Prior knowledge:
alpha+beta, six-stranded mixed β-sheet, Rossmann fold, five-stranded antiparallel β-sheet, 15 helices, single chain
Amino acid sequence: MTEHIRSKILSTLTHFLEDVASDDVIGVAVSGGSDSVALLFALQELFPVSKLRAVTVDHGLRSAAVGEALWVGKLCTSLGIFHSTIPVKNLAPGSNLQARAREARYNALADWGQGCDLLCLGHSQTDVAETFLIRLARGSGVDGLAGMRARWRICDIDCARPLLSFSRDDLREYLRAKGQTWCEDPSNEDLTYKRIQMRQAQQMLDGLGLDTARLAKTAARMSSVQEALAFSLKTLRPTVMSLDFGDIVFDRTALGALPGEYVERMVSDALGWIGGQVYKPRNLSLLRAISTEKVFSLHGCVLIPQIGNLLRISREYAVVSLEEATCPALWDNRYFAPNHDKKYKIQALGSKGLSLCPDWRSSRRPLIALKSSPSLWQDDKLISAPMAGFGEKDVLKVVPTPWE
């Protein structure tokens, strides 16, 4: 059985990584836990160590994390693999510690991974099943219940989870056969964490036919549904919404004729793109926003009812009022001036800029939307404010939406 598991792991990785070129550098995130250590050893069996780079992220949340990072470093040294430890101290404020730590970890990995052609993470089938149960308990929809992506990109870095078809038990069996240990995180016994509660409940669920493989299979089916919905939306979006430079305008009459799943998904996507939020708004907030008859703030955006039963989604001015970007950098993660250098800056138009746009009313756009719209300046001179009808229209550009 042990040799069968090893052969299956190596065969799966070989197929999964068949597009890796001979001169590509592969990064691997190693926490010291069994899943990531198994990934490290499997990659070391398949590729020359000169192609591999390992990294450990230390959030500074546990005293034992320092020792675990040192342990991983020594392991990598023994294998001839270059290793780095990244300390993360700038966790975003909020209540969900694990979610905040995860976001900080991915940001740190994206920065570190700039020198790699591929970044591999050791998530397993067990992670998929646990995540499915956590989100099921929250009442998540299709997106929440869909399985982890095997391939995706973070900040132009190709990321991969090659071991999603293997359980944690499989990976530990592989390591034991090699005489290799791993680090046990004490928090894995802390029942205050929802993931650990689900892990403890798994033994009972196994007896009910809801084992890890079955849960992971259901998550995979939800991923297929997710893909089908995304395919349908390519046709539906143009019939109910339009892009007005950086704003999105919905026809609420047409929107109301669609099934609720489509409506929530399109409005949520619009809020995420404009507001720059990773996580989606809660359904109750979303439903209230869609039906609002008054100006309504949500997710870093402002929703503005307009004549003709239209709903405009713009950036919330308070969020961007103090932000500036020196060209050619992005402003608000969406706007840029490709033909201008560092002598120019982009900022929200605001009341000051609006006063310099005599024809802003002819744009027929709401005042609140114009204040948060992008404008290009040279010192105190306004060069362009495209949404307010000032200056050359094509000076400022907006990045494509994720669904274009």
